[in-house]
């Protein structure tokens, strides 16, 4: 044990202790108040697309239980919450007519958060594209980026007096990879060129929206992207081929997004890989990179695990292979390796490569399937250990100079986990799927202590 393990670890004053969710995963009420259809409503209806035939039709019913869930957050002692606005609730056809009932809903939700002293971080796009836009090409169509900027302006006008921090796009890589290359997420496409086109249009959408935010003259508003960042580790660090393959894989997953957004353009090495795989990148127009680099005020870090890379060809078109992971590294119930030291290294790397840009952990969490026991409580001690280890890593990075401003745990509540349906449980709060009854897990009670005191208790201290 180090002294860090035996003493309370205090975080900086003003650190944001948050929770994270997204609209389609928690809201349900898909037909309420004029909401338009989203690509996920449609994808869930494709036989075999989602485990067990699950859908987000009901999810956590948070559209109707917002007050209850805000009370839960208040009970957790958090001072911040990340949620997403559903584009199809606000502009049901994707462009044009604005649905006032959708705006009213989020007005109430945001006011409810603020009344509890919980600062809202609003994501504009967490994967629920209106189907009307999908029907004209979705994110493959450059025009969707323009529609997004219009939608962003509607949201800035409606909520910008109370929402200071905005995530424009959630995980552009995952949208490209799972949604358009592997067909595992909505809209279920399997087309490599579409995948890279879509990723470019998502970055363009970000740039256009940030430009609009600046034009709206909201000096104190800040915007950024929440990226799915994966540290890449060579399978054999002494093998130069593995080391080179690892650097290339980093280009694919991380630098392809971070570099252009922070003014360095697309990385040349990865550009060549893409050109070899799909031909000319003709969807990149003159001036796009300037738009994309319009300014990002923070980097949103969604961190779950890492990739171990060896040289050679895997399933994709790339000259690297993703290995299965190490047998001696502990895993969550979803099989993801638990590697908190990699989070500390990632934060330091972001600090070095993109100096001066504030960092927010916009997602971090784990699947553990613990259910209520005979005593009615959920003793998810493995989740406590997971969050504790990751917060210690964040604390170390802050100590070494990384400007981390907050931690938003994924997730507040067990919810609809995309193609895996309701099977994986990520929440600090358990949901009985039949009754919608919420039970704060032991991890939620533990997190409340951390959030209230702004410090991590010594390892092994019984704080429940
Ligand atoms: C991220 C998503 C989020 C959730 C977590 C587990 O990729 O942004 O919606 O599904 O993974």
Summarize the structure.
With about 475 residues, the protein is an alpha/beta fold.
Task: Provide tags for this entry.
464 residues; alpha/beta; TIM Barrel; eight-stranded parallel β-barrel; three-stranded mixed sheet; 15% strand; binds beta-D-fucopyranose
Strands of the widest sheet, in order across it, are 2-3-4-5-6-8-11-12
Q: How many domains make up the coordinates? A: 1
> Based on helices, strands and strand pairing, what is the structural class?
alpha/beta
Number of strands: 15
Distance between the termini: 22 Å
CATH topological fold name = TIM Barrel
What is the class in the CATH system? Alpha Beta
Mean pLDDT: 97
Dominant shape: globular
| Name given to the CATH architecture | Alpha-Beta Barrel
Question: Main sheet?
Answer: 8 strands, parallel, barrel
Number of helices: 16
Radius of gyration (Å): 21 Å
Strand content: 15-25%
Helix content: 25-40%
Which parts are unreliable, with pLDDT below 50 for 5 consecutive residues or more?
none
Q: Which molecules are bound besides the chains? A: beta-D-fucopyranose
Relevant CATH superfamily: Glycosidases
